[in-house]
Amino acid sequence: MIVCHCMSISDKDILAAMAWMRASDRQTIITPGKIYRALGKKPDCGGCLPHFIATMKGSGDLEVPHELRHLRQNNKRHKE
Ligand code: FES
After folding, report:
1. Which residues line ligand 1 (CB under 6 A)?
2. How far is Cα 55 from Cα 24, in angstroms, rounded to an integer?
3. Which of 6, 9, 52 is the pocket-test mutation for ligand 1 (most atoms within 8 Å of CB)?
4. Of 77, 67, 3, the residue nearest 41 (C-alpha)
5. What is the chain's pLDDT, residue by residue, as a tens digit (80 residues)?
6. Cα–Cα distance measured from residue 58 to residue 10, given in angstroms and rounded to the nearest whole number
């Protein structure tokens, strides 16, 4: 199913890019911008973003790596 009509990006393209990014770097934070770059494209109108993000949320690869969670809270604790 096409998610981004401007750039002809499908849900399968998004999920494949996410899987590739996660396999390449286990600690990476995956964003829509990184997915566009990985696919060699740039967003145009941005109208697809809600559906784009919903597609991303359907992937297990979106999860923030455990060691990168709560960094702001952990930094506050170290300063106190
Ligand atoms: S539909 Fe994705 S940028 Fe326009």
Report:
1. 4-7, 43-48
2. 20
3. 6
4. 3
5. 999 999 999 999 999 999 999 999 988 889 999 999 999 999 999 999 999 999 999 988 887 777 777 877 767 766 66
6. 14
**Cα–ligand 1 centroid distance for 6 (angstroms):** 4
pTM, whole model, 2 decimals?
A: 0.80
Reduced DSSP (H G I as helix, E B as strand, rest coil) percent helix, strand, coil of the chain, to 5: 55, 5, 40
| 22 C-alpha to ligand 1 centroid (Å) | 24
Rounded distance between C-alpha atoms, residue 47 and residue 33, angstroms: 14
C-alpha 14 to ligand 1 mean position (Å): 13
